[in-house]
Amino acid sequence: MQRADPFVVDEYYHIYNRGIDKKVIFQTERDHQRFVALLYISNTKESFRLDNIINQQKKRLNEVFQIDRGDTLVDIGAWCLMPNHFHILIREKTEGGISKFMLKLSTAYSMYFNIKRKRTGALLCRPFKSILIKNDNYLRHLFGYIHLNPIDLKFKDWKEKIKRDKKETNEMKIFLNSYKYSSYLDYFREERIENKILSTKKFPEYFLGVHEFMDFIEDYLSTEEE
User: Fold this and answer.
1) What is the rounded distance in angstroms from the CA atom of residue 211 to the CA atom of residue 199?
2) If 0-12 CB within 10 Å is exposed, 13-18 middle and 19+ buried, where does residue 160 land?
3) What is the C-alpha to C-alpha distance for residues 222 and 217, in angstroms, rounded to an integer?
4) Which residues of 112-138 are buried (b: 16+ CB within 10 A; e: fewer)?
């Protein structure tokens, strides 16, 4: 299928996909951990089989992040997992990089999910969705949109509220600080192995430090929807 905006080296894209029929694709802690490990290990020009790495090399999932991947296919600036879908902010690093990366990621996770649950058939929608980011304002906006996606899990219709009190805003930030399945915590410089997924230096320096990112999130949460 021809994409409206073909992937071009050095351009940024918002990639997202969901389960077939909006199926929940992350059902357990292990599911989340598996996909997060795949976000790291799929980003390589080398071939791999995660089960072989785990079983033959006797590595735990969190030890996968210590593997030298060699040359990578893409640069990732942000990511987030939701129960039935995921978002990735990505840069085409090499020609065909995004397509190869997404094929590895989607195939590996779908195989894991199907084998674990003794099911057959497609797990994710095909093709995955992609939006070319055409201006700096939209690229910056996506760092908020992607990272704040999990708020929907606890605070329904929060975007539609005309006014939001300070207490509720603080509760939202507390919830985000407890949500492990996105790169949100990595922008707070939290020491965790998952930050190896990101290539932040390949994206504009919107946030020179933790305080700048905190201010950005605060402003994003405080913005009234039109």
Assistant:
1) 20
2) exposed
3) 8
4) bbeeeeeeeeebbbeebebebbeeeee
What are the CA-CA distances from residue 195 to residues 37, 78, 90 (Å)?
Answer: 11, 10, 15
pLDDT tens, position by position, 50-85: 877 776 665 678 888 988 999 999 999 999 999 999
Structure tokens at 167: 């207490």
Distance CA 78, CA 89 (A): 5
How many whole angstroms separate alpha carbon 74 and alpha carbon 10? 10
94's tokens: 């090499």
Contact 25, 84 (CB under 8 A): yes
Token pair for 47: 């071939």
Q: What is the pTM of this model?
A: 0.92
Over residues 108-154, the pLDDT tens digits come to 999 999 999 999 999 999 999 999 999 999 999 999 999 999 999 99
